[in-house]
Amino acid sequence: AAKIEPEWVEAVAGSLVDKTYFDPHWEKERGEVVASERVSLFGLTLVARRSVSYGSIAPALAREVFIREALVAEDFATRAPFFAHNHALRAEVAELEHKARRQDVLVDDEAIYAFYAERIPEDICTTVALDRWRRDWEGQDPKRLFMTREALMRHAAESVTE
């Protein structure tokens, strides 16, 4: 008897298969948000776990994960000037916070997320898309994604001594 491959059933069953997605996460090497996909037919699992691009499945959630894990958590391989600038500025403010022996100078991750979410279009959820979009507007507004020291500090610079 011939063995039936699950991929054959999946290809033939078409819209009868049920696909569920779980564990969306940032994958730095691929430069995109991926999720695990489970494919089943009438309760029978055809594919238990397959890695798929999440941007076309749930763009809003993929964008949020992209901003949080790639940009806010700084897990992003890029030579974009804004990224190096923001990283250095965050380190500078964190050092200032350390010297002042205060834990309330550098804004939290939510404020940094809000900064990026406010400026990056809703359809951007991969490094390729971000780079393409960034190249289009950098001539007119080169500092669009550049954070300022004030934006990263909860307190005015005068109240924190260096």
What topology emerges from the helices and strands here?
Elements: H1 6-13, E1 18-27, E2 32-41, E3 44-53, H2 59-72, H3 81-100, H4 109-119, H5 127-137, H6 149-152
Antiparallel strand pairs: 1-2, 2-3
Helix pairs in contact: 2-4
How would you describe the overall organization of this protein?
The chain has 162 residues and is of the alpha+beta class. The chain folds into two domains: 6-58, no CATH class; 60-159, no CATH class. Helices cover 42% and strands 19% of the residues. It contains six helices and three strands. The protein has helices at residues 6-13, 59-72, 81-100, 109-119, 127-137, 149-152; strands at 18-27, 32-41, 44-53. Strands 1-2-3 form a three-stranded antiparallel beta sheet. A hairpin with a 2-residue loop joins strand 2 and strand 3. Helix 2 crosses helix 4 (109-119). The longest helix is centred in the middle third of the chain and has 20 residues, at 81-100. The mean pLDDT is 88.
Radius of gyration: 21 Å
The SS-based structural class is alpha+beta
Termini separation: 78 Å
Count of DSSP E strands? 3
Strand content: 15-25%
In short:
The protein is an alpha+beta fold.
List key phrases describing it.
single chain, 162 residues, alpha+beta, 2 domains, three-stranded antiparallel β-sheet, 3 strands, 42% helix
